User: Which sequence fits this backbone?
């Protein structure tokens, strides 16, 4: 069973920079997994931020960026704002064999 | 504008069935693969199923395989999820989500607002 790992929680100061990561319990994340990132505030539907590792979805501010850092996918927020306080989820595409997508457990980001 | 609206959620007893729907508008529905993603109360997101744009291919998470069936009616711009043999642990908000055009590996693009399914006796 594939397990995708994310930090359970993170905090950042307003105006600061934070990098959230998305890894595999066994193995390394590469662009072949087409990592994507989603933002969700409580009671709301998810919103797509980043897809295909580093492509910003339409309307997403450029303070959000995606990359591969070491053996993990990463979401960096540069110049965090109060409204960025949310839960962030990554998902990896498991394309070898039967296609399926596996979400990480999510990171609760606090801006304070 | 692109919009996905889920409906059909409710309270159902364990072992019973329920079908939820997702009405699409604002885009050419028949050109896009579609996902169902669920979220149990207080938990994270879980991918459930995907259907290709033409309905010819369908894939499921192991947790629902054999119990849930994804389908679509491109003439009605509607996606469905038929859920049989429901279990208490299927209680969740169910979201439909559009896949990326021509690149299903890229994950989910546009999301609906979700419909709540509660399985309880």
Assistant:
């Amino acid at each position: 069973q594939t397990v995708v790992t994310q930090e359970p929680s993170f905090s950042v100061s307003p105006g600061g920079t934070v990098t959230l990561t998305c890894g595999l319990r066994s193995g390394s994340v590469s662009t072949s997994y087409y990592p994507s990132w989603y933002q969700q505030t409580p009671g709301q539907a998810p919103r797509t931020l980043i897809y295909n590792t580093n492509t910003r979805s339409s309307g997403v501010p450029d303070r959000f960026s995606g990359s591969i850092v070491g053996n993990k996918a990463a979401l960096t927020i540069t110049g965090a704002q109060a409204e960025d306080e949310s839960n962030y989820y990554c998902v990896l595409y498991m394309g070898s064999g039967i296609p399926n997508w596996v979400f990480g457990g999510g990171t609760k980001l606090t801006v304070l | 504008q692109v919009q996905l609206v889920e409906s059909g959620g409710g309270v159902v007893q364990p072992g019973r069935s329920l079908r939820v729907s997702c009405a699409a508008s604002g885009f050419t529905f028949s050109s896009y693969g579609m996902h169902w993603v669920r979220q149990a109360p207080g938990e994270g997101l879980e991918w459930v199923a995907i259907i290709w744009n033409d309905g010819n291919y369908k894939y499921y998470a192991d947790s629902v395989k054999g119990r849930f069936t994804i389908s679509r009616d491109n003439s009605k711009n509607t996606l469905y999820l038929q859920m049989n043999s429901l279990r208490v642990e299927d209680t969740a908000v169910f979201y439909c989500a559009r896949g990326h055009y021509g690149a299903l590996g890229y994950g989910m693009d546009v999301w609906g607002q979700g419909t709540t399914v509660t399985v309880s006796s």
About this structure: Chain A has a mean pLDDT of 96. Residues 41 and 86 of chain A are 5 Å apart (CA to CA). The first strand of chain A starts at residue 4 and ends at 6. The interface with chain B takes residues 34, 36, 38, 40, 45-48, 51-52, 57, 87, 89, 91, 93, 95, 98-106 of chain A (CB under 8 Å).
